Amino acid sequence: MCQVLQVSRSGYYKWRTLTPSERAQRKARLTERIQWHYHDSDLRYGSPRIRHELLKEGWVVSERTVGFIMRENGLRSCMSRKFRVATTDSNHAFPTAKNELNQDFSATKPSEKWVADITYIPCRQGKLYLASILDLYTKQIVGWKLSDRMTTDLVMDALNQAYAAKNPESGLIHHSDRGAQYASKEYRNKLTSMG
């Protein structure tokens, strides 16, 4: 094999027993951490951000070195535009209720005024939607539901939970946005039946 590859036998045996230098070992460990941060960020972090993460771990490294190792290993950050999720679809044919609250967020007793909304929560595994109902007097979340889909069932479950927990008297003002989930026939009927 040495003759075919034109390598001396002594050179081959030296290569087999050679241990990497401290510099090569450090570079290998650093490359491993850079690759970990790169993949942990879903391929979004570039050399400035990865260097920042490495500094937090105690590494002493320049941004230039991180960039060089990234290029050497074919790691290139993928920048994406900011993603804004619209949780209110007010372009629907459902009737909408009159604005009883009219920007008056004060309340004199519990279960006098409730406000409801849907919030988008970005997660590593995907997206989640949180429907919640807040009592304006106690500032307590009286009902909530989490789902990966923004449906009428999501807001219905939060409403059912709120009524089961607080059993409010009639006359409760329930305020939400004018989204399709809150304006749906099922949701309006539930509010009417609960008083």
UniProtKB/TrEMBL annotation:
Residue ranges constituting the Integrase catalytic domain according to the UniProt record: 106-195
Name of the protein described by the UniProt record: Integrase catalytic domain-containing protein
Pfam families: HTH_21 (PF13276), rve (PF00665)
Species for this entry: Caenorhabditis japonica
GO biological process, one term: DNA integration
NCBIfam families for this protein: transpos_IS3
Coiled-coil features, chain-numbered ranges: none
Domain of life of the organism encoding this protein: Eukaryota
One function term, GO molecular function aspect: nucleic acid binding
